[in-house]
Amino acid sequence: xxxxxxxxxxxxxxxxxxxxxxxxxxxxxxxxxxxxxxxxxxxxxxxxxxxxxxxxxxxxxxxxxxxxxxxxxxxxxxxxxxxxxxxxxxxxxxxxxxxxxxxxxxxxxxxxxxxxxxxxxxxxxxxxxxxxxxxxxxxxxxxxxxxxxxxxxxxxxxxxxxxxxxxxxxxxxxxxxxxxxxxxxxxxxxxxxxxxxxxxxxxxxxxxxxxxxxxxxxxxxxxxxxxxxxxxxxxxxxxxxxxxxxxxxxxxxxxxxxxxxxxxxxxxxxxxxxxxxxxxxxxxxxxxxxxxxxxxxxxxxxxxxxxxxxxxxxxxxxxxxxxxxxxxxxxxxxxxxxxxxxxxxxxxxxxxxxxxxxxxxxxxxxxxxxxxxxxxxxxxxxxxxxxxxxxxxxxxxxxxxxxxxxxxxxxxxxxxxxxxxxxxxxxxxxxxxxxxxxxxxxxxxxxxxxxxxxxxxxxxxxxxxxxxxxxxxxxxxxxxxxxxxxxxxxxxxxxxxxxxxxx
Length: 503
What we know:
By secondary structure, the chain is an alpha/beta fold. It is 40% helix and 20% strand. The protein has a seven-stranded mixed sheet with strand order 14-15-16-13-12-17-18, sandwiched between helices. Strands 9-8-7-10-11-19 form a six-stranded mixed sheet, sandwiched between helices.
């Protein structure tokens, strides 16, 4: 794959250039250098992909589900062989460390493995003699043409949350990756073609709001999957449903991590570091608000700063052995840095200042070191708003109930974590905290492929979540059939035209 030309679109089983005059640069966040261009597709490009998908759908729908799964088996094997290649592309265009990129590709491969098992999960239900001589059954059918709109922070993994399940369920899928990180999706698309996906069944288009709106309003697209910020997730949900589409839209988060006085401190600090600073904090499951309870606060902050200072921040485009890479872009870097200024003006203390970091061989890269902001009050912006960078705010409380109250005040509801040895505290937390994904002594409570990504409140818009059995339900519709077969005498009585022996 080359970046000399604008990133291609995949339509009708062929790689084509979009019919557009607008392009965005693709940047290497480690150096600040442009490495390619993303075409910003028009509504005509989207319609081209939809028409190809509509043409392919009847044959794909009738392809036995076991045969569709066999393509996923081949796809899994091919992607596994090329996983390191894909991971290096992720690190180049996004800025993840190579270890983080490899892990994210592996999570995507697990979604393909889940899709390989869909024949056993695609089954319906049947009840004989639901009424006298009446049987009832349900079967699943694909929706038709569906689409996914994915974010920049997981270029390989998040798209793979969606289309392996959608395709194996018999739908045709149109992917629109983030224009900041299209190269990973193009490479994986090449591998899916190699696995034997038929022409038109899987498409890739690129673009900004014009392309998104074309997907949301196209009358032949039945469903939309989305992952991104809460503001855009709400727009996706409202616009898509207004145009008669099924929508699942995962938004942003402000994930709370509660540290009880009885917590095992070494693994707790390790979990906090990984949760807050992994992937440079650019993930919706990042722990961004630490809540130490009681007299443990000073120790937590001190250990966090000590560990954070030792983290190696550097370029990720060469596979260097670093602990953290850059954030995605110059504007995003300035936005995250701006929150530190806001926190200081509002009276918080920047205990570990990532603005002081320098990367000698990446002077133009988008680097911010691990940052800890202490003495953050609940009303401060850094306590309430999603920062999406390597910034951990610390709000001190006196009791677990006070920590629960902070959770009730949060508009989001993605994930929350407690570190404790107390089974009672853990049970209360699991039962009462205002979030859809709970971790107990686990820094990042993100579900694996077999379970749904269950955000609450303004972290999710829709009814059926991404991943797991809910993902299968989202990409299918059920048909119920009632069946009655009459005895010949009954037929004779009710239908004078029919007589035994009469054809």
